[in-house]
């Protein structure tokens, strides 16, 4: 398949920029308010949830919820996430974190006697993990700043998950819309898994030949599908896909030693798009992914073979 890179998106206009940031600020405020109310009324600090004492699970979750406004508004309004927007989100989330700390300080009786940073230092040094009996352990002292740093990093990283995904997602500059992705199925490109004894040289050789032939057949099938796609032959493309990637066979193909995932990404308005293929090898945690390239598609082909395909 021929390679093609998505065209770089234009920088968002000032009004679009403010729309996304405003929506993100609203959800960030609501998320942090929820954390504050849950802490004061239920005595449970969600931001203080850690896995193995170092993974800020709570902060990541709060950050993910807080950033929902950025992602949802970008997607619905068709505003492309850019590097500038990502960095702006980072700065806003850092400011929001400390703003939440200041609000907590302002509502604490100690605010009458000490300044914010003195209060923040005291509270940080008083951080302690709960023991098995549910009671707080020994305060961490200066090590509390380590947890504060992890908390802040977790919150910011959680806030960047959705925007980062959108930043990487193909975008139609002409229509100002994110591409939609449609999976077209798995193509067979390898034999079923077989357990052979190491001493079985003949069996090993036969299996290697079978693997090579299946891989070549998969590559040839992908090449033919690509030719039909680039030639605008929607009927031939759909017929070949239905024959070699039928839905009843998808589970079986997913267990092969090698399979090719075929998908189409396109603009929902003008139908410009491309065909993408990725080879998968192995199973479970040992899966290896190999991108096989992208092929530009004509809008008429996308409408006929992808959008209107049942």
Can you walk me through this structure?
By secondary structure, this protein is an alpha+beta fold. Helix content is 52%, strand content 13%. Helix 1 runs parallel beside helix 4, helix 2 crosses helix 6 and helix 8 runs parallel beside helix 10. It is flat and about 80 Å long.
How would you briefly describe this protein structure?
It contains 10 helices and 6 strands, in the order ααααααβββαααβββα.
Keywords for this structure?
310 residues, alpha+beta, 2 domains, four-stranded antiparallel sheet, two-stranded antiparallel sheet, 6 strands, 52% helix, flat, disordered N terminus
Major sheet summary line = 4 strands, antiparallel
The helix content, as a percent range, equals 40-55%
In terms of per-residue confidence, which ranges show pLDDT below 50 for 5 or more consecutive residues?
2-11
CA radius of gyration is: 26 Å
**Shape, principal axes of CA atoms:** flat
The end-to-end distance, rounded to whole angstroms, is 25 Å
Strand-residue fraction? 5-15%
Number of strands: 6
On the 0-100 scale, what is the average pLDDT?
Answer: 87
Strand order of the largest sheet: 3-4-5-6
Could you give the order of the helices and strands? Answer: HHHHHHEEEHHHEEEH
Write the layout of secondary structure elements.
Layout: H1 14-42, H2 57-66, H3 68-77, H4 83-106, H5 116-125, H6 144-168, E1 171-172, E2 177-178, E3 180-188, H7 201-230, H8 234-244, H9 250-253, E4 258-266, E5 273-281, E6 288-297, H10 299-307
Antiparallel strand pairs: 1-2, 3-4, 4-5, 5-6
């Amino acid at each position: 398949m021929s390679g093609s890179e998505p065209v770089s998106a234009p920088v968002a206009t000032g009004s679009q920029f403010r729309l996304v940031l405003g929506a993100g600020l609203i959800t960030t405020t609501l998320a942090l308010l929820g954390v504050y109310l849950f802490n004061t009324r239920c005595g449970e600090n969600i931001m203080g949830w850690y896995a193995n004492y170092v993974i800020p699970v709570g902060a990541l979750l709060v950050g993910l919820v807080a950033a929902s406004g950025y992602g949802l508004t970008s997607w619905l309004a068709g505003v492309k996430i850019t590097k500038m927007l990502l960095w702006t989100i980072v700065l806003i989330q850092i400011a929001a974190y400390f703003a939440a700390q200041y609000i907590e300080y302002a509502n604490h009786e100690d605010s009458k006697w000490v300044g914010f940073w003195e209060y923040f230092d005291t509270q940080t040094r008083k951080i302690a993990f709960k023991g098995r009996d549910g009671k707080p352990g020994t305060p961490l002292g200066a090590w509390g700043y380590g947890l504060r740093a992890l908390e802040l990093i977790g919150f910011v990283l959680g806030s960047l998950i959705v925007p980062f995904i959108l930043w990487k997602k193909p975008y139609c500059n002409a229509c100002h819309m994110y591409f939609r992705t449609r999976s077209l199925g798995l193509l067979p490109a390898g034999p079923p898994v077989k357990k052979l004894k190491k001493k079985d040289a003949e069996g090993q050789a036969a299996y290697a030949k079978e693997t090579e032939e299946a891989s070549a057949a998969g590559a040839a099938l992908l090449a033919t599908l690509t030719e039909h796609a680039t030639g605008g032959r929607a009927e031939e493309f759909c017929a070949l896909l239905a024959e070699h990637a039928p839905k009843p066979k998808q589970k079986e193909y997913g267990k092969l030693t090698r399979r090719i995932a075929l998908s189409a990404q396109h603009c929902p308005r003008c139908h410009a798009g491309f065909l993408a293929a990725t080879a998968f090898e192995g199973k479970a945690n040992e899966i290896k992914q190999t991108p096989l390239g992208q092929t530009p598609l004509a809008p008429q082909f996308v409408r006929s073979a992808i959008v209107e395909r049942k």
